[in-house]
């Protein structure tokens, strides 16, 4: 993992140094567009630059949140324009049935606002929540506002920690590693349950 993250961290640092706040926004947009570029590298390095006096804490954090909103919007519209029609036509080949889409629609209709806001505060999940929100066609403006609102405290937290750590900003990865593993395990269990649910016999099949 270190061999993968080290060059990514170096690239992130180069982008931010060369593009300033726009670089932060660009990188966080990539992270929020379902591309797993760790925000745990982007914002802490920005915080390190705050500690050196090159950046302002508030400007860096808001730039990150704006980037999150932009990337989330891209992933959302991919879900609306491409994801929904694709799954309706080919979803059965990956065990996604029409009733699964209907269930997701009901979930986002009832809990979508909370789901988007809370997801933006969680590692791993925050990267991918926008696509299913678009597939379920959650109203766009509430989605965008809540995505931005949920990203603000996340970006402030990571930037502030990076400021405190200073030159040791990359050490923040160790603090989030356990959370990443826990959420990854939770998602794996959920995926396993979903597979079991799709392969278990229907009640009428059991009677036969």
Question: How would you describe this protein?
Answer:
The protein has 208 residues and is mostly helical. It has one domain (2-174). Helix content is 81%, strand content 0%. It has helices at 2-19, 21-32, 39-51, 57-90, 98-119, 125-128, 130-135, 140-165, 172-199, 203-207. Helix 1 (2-19) crosses helix 2, helix 4 (57-90) crosses helix 8 (140-165) and helix 5 (98-119) crosses helix 8. The longest helix is centred in the middle third of the chain and has 34 residues, at 57-90.
Largest beta-sheet details: none
Quote the average pLDDT.
79
- Helical stretch count? 10
State the end-to-end CA separation: 50 Å
**Number of domain modules:** 1
> Which structural class is indicated by helix and strand composition?
mainly alpha
- Please tell me what the overall shape is: elongated
Number of strands: 0
Radius of gyration based on Cα positions = 19 Å
Helical fraction = over 70%
């Amino acid at each position: 993992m270190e061999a993968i993250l080290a060059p990514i961290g170096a690239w992130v640092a180069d982008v931010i140094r060369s593009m300033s706040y726009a670089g932060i926004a660009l990188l966080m947009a990539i992270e929020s567009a379902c591309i797993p570029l760790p925000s745990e590298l982007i914002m802490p390095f920005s915080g390190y630059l705050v500690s050196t006096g090159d950046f302002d804490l508030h400007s860096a954090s808001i730039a990150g949140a704006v980037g999150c909103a932009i990337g989330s919007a891209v992933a959302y519209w991919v879900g609306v324009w491409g994801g929904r029609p694709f799954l309706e036509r080919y979803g059965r080949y990956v065990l996604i049935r029409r009733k699964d889409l209907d269930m997701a629609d009901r979930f986002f209709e009832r809990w979508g606002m909370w789901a988007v806001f809370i997801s933006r505060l969680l590692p791993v999940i925050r990267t991918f929540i926008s696509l299913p929100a678009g597939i379920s066609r959650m109203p766009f403006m509430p989605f965008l506002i809540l995505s931005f609102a949920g990203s603000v405290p996340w970006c402030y937290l990571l930037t502030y920690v990076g400021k405190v750590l200073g030159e040791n900003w990359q050490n923040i990865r160790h603090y989030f590693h356990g959370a990443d593993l826990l959420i990854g395990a939770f998602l794996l269990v959920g995926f396993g349950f979903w597979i079991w649910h799709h392969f278990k016999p229907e009640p009428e099949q059991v009677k036969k």
